[in-house]
Amino acid sequence: MTKAEHTPGPWKYFETDNGFSICQHTPKADYHLAEIEGLDDQAKADARLIAAAPDLLLALKAVVAAADTYTSEMAEAAIQNGWADDDTTIVVNPNPVISACRTIIAYVEATQ
Hints:
By secondary structure, the chain is α+β, with helices and mostly antiparallel strands. It has three helices and three strands, in the order E-E-E-H-H-H.
């Protein structure tokens, strides 16, 4: 199985005659990705959320990386200061927010 790849960002949205279009924005052209029907506030909010997806994924990955770095540094400090022995296993950060971030990343990057 290979890792699923999404269309790279940035993604943008714009209003059409009957809804909103979400496109990959490049210097050369905009490539259509999806269409949201309707011009109401909810349709516009949906279009904004979908267009933000690549940036949201990057932000989630940054949060997880920062948490992993912090957890690793704290475990190393505990060993160096004698608060834990050298056999201590560095565990994955159990914070429920970080766990939720990991779950979302795994869902987005699921293999086919």
